[in-house]
Amino acid sequence: MKDLFIKRFGYYKMLGDQSFEQLSEEEIFWQFNEESNSIAVVVKHIAGNMLSRWTNFLTEDGEKTWRNRDEEFLNTFKTKAEVLEYWEQGWKCLFHAMDQITEENLYATIYIRNEAHSVIDAVFRQLAHYPYHIGQIVYIAKMIKSNDWKTLSIARNKSGDFNAVMKTRFS
Fold it and tell me: Do the beta carbons of residue 106 and residue 4 sit within 8 Å?
């Protein structure tokens, strides 16, 4: 089961990584308006959540006392490198936690904000949360790059070609 979790989380990490590769230093900090989040801020929130949820997740509440969620929505990064370093730190924590999941603890009770969850439910909860925000990252990046955007999925008007390749690959 944990291999499937790692595979799914890895796919979403890849979407973020490939979006970042297309963005300049300035673009990662771009905001549509004062009320919207930059990609840097979205990364700060995702990684902050990962660090809180997955550090000692089997023995400690997933909402750590040291986490300041509200502060995650204020940009404190100065460079794209800092953003990417924090992104990687969050994913490293998450993947380390996934390595700790076993068939024996899959249904063990853990807590997030004092609410009981099974380990599998906590994973599913985050498999809904992180892709939601990674979709925001991809959407913002796509808006920024406009016609220079390199698609991360099936290219527009190329579904038939993609399906034909998949058919031969898995036949």
Answer: no
Full 3-state SS string of the chain: CHHHHHHHHHHHHHHHHHHHHCCCCCHHHCCCCCCCCCHHHHHHHHHHHHHHHHCCCCCCCCCCCCCCHHHHHCCCCCCHHHHHHHHHHHHHHHHHHHHCCCCCCCCCEEEECCEEEEHHHHHHHHHHHHHHHHHHHHHHHHHHHHHHCCCCCCCCCCHHHHHHHHHHHCC
Q: Using one digit for the tens of pLDDT, what is the confidence trace for 95-144?
A: 999 999 999 999 999 999 999 999 999 999 999 999 999 999 999 999 99
